[in-house]
Amino acid sequence: MPGWHLAFATLAVLTACLVVTGDAGPAAAATAAAERGAALLVLVLLCGWYGATGARALHRDRDHSRLGVVYLAGAVSLSAALFAAVPEGALMWVMLYPHIWALLPLRKAMAATVASVMSMAAVMIFRGDAYGQELSSAILLSVVTLVVALVLGVWITRIIEQSRQRARLVEELAATRAELAAVSREAGVLAERERLAKEIHDTLAQGFTSVLLLLEAAKAGTCERDQAARGHLDQARRTAMDNLAEARALVAALPPPQLRDASLPDALGGLIERFEAETGLEARFTVTGTPCRLTPNEEVVLLRVTQEALANVRKHAPGAGRLGGVLAYGTEGVTLRITDDGQGFDPGEAGTGFGIGGMRDRVAEVGGVLSIGPGRLSGTLVQVELPS
């Protein structure tokens, strides 16, 4: 765009210099001042018209710019008036033709070129005596000008269209390359998932199945009076069954069993109720606010964080007597808090294993924030904040 403006300004200044310094000849001495004054006025109007409409039209799509048509209609008229005033005004037609082909599609540009050349020919015929042009010379010059303008315009338009086609082809190739890269990554992920699925099926799933059979056999051989042992065996059996279901869900790339047929609050409440039954700790789960639907990934993250927090209470919170869970829905997002009244731990020493590190990674993947530290009174607080 700066090139268009600079070229127009250069020709306008050159035309003005030629108008001011040009020699009108003795025959035109009486009217020279008036003609050159009128020419300078028309030149100023043409520059103002370009600044008001032409410069803006050149920034727009030529196939959909009505402003370009408005600019060219005024520019052709003003250029013809300038040429009618002084012969030096023909210099501004040098910029008019490129503007026509830059602002209009092919057929409209050809029509505008014919109209502009005809207006120039009309001026030469009308002022033939003043410009020293005979009718035959004016017609011949107009025909040559028209042919040259059309040939150059069509040629330049074809070059521009070829450049646009190449640009579109490059964009399509880039998009295709990105799609191929995405497909390749997805294929790699699927291959790795298939490998892990086979490993899980051949190891964990088979192992849990064997554990279930052994537990059934142990329960069958336990005395009916030994209720405590039978209770522990039942708990172990439920744990093995749940983990077998988890392993099968991973193999099939399905959502966790807890979330398949229940809402997130019900799934978390079920985990904490089972934790209370298995450990004997007093546990309470509360939901505040109006529950809203989260994305599947966000629900899985909150479920896994809860499972890991409860597992950590089992292993690392001796002396704990109570556990609390809060799932708070708010206007800015969802917050999950798991607290216990155990002895707590040093947060600086945590995060090196898969448990806490895995929780941090999971929460970060969905754009949340995980904080682990001492509770308000004692014990440990695990908090997840997911923005809405």
Structure overview:
- This protein has 388 residues and is of the alpha+beta class.
- Among the domains are: 2-133; 263-387, Histidine kinase-like ATPase, C-terminal domain (Heat Shock Protein 90, 2-Layer Sandwich).
- 69% of the residues lie in helices and 10% in strands.
- It has a five-stranded mixed β-sheet.
- The chain is rod-shaped, with a radius of gyration of 42 Å.
- The two termini are 44 Å apart.
Q: Could you report the average pLDDT, rounded to the nearest whole number?
A: 79
Largest sheet: 5 strands, mixed
Q: Which stretches of 5+ consecutive residues score pLDDT under 50?
A: none
N to C succession of SSEs: HHHHHHHHHHEHEEHEE
Structural class per helix/strand content? alpha+beta
Count of strand segments: 5
The side-by-side strand order for the widest beta sheet comes to: 1-2-3-5-4
Radius of gyration: 42 Å
Query: Helix tally?
Result: 12
Coarse shape: rod-shaped
Helical coverage, percent range: 55-70%
Strand content: 5-15%
How far apart the termini lie comes to: 44 Å
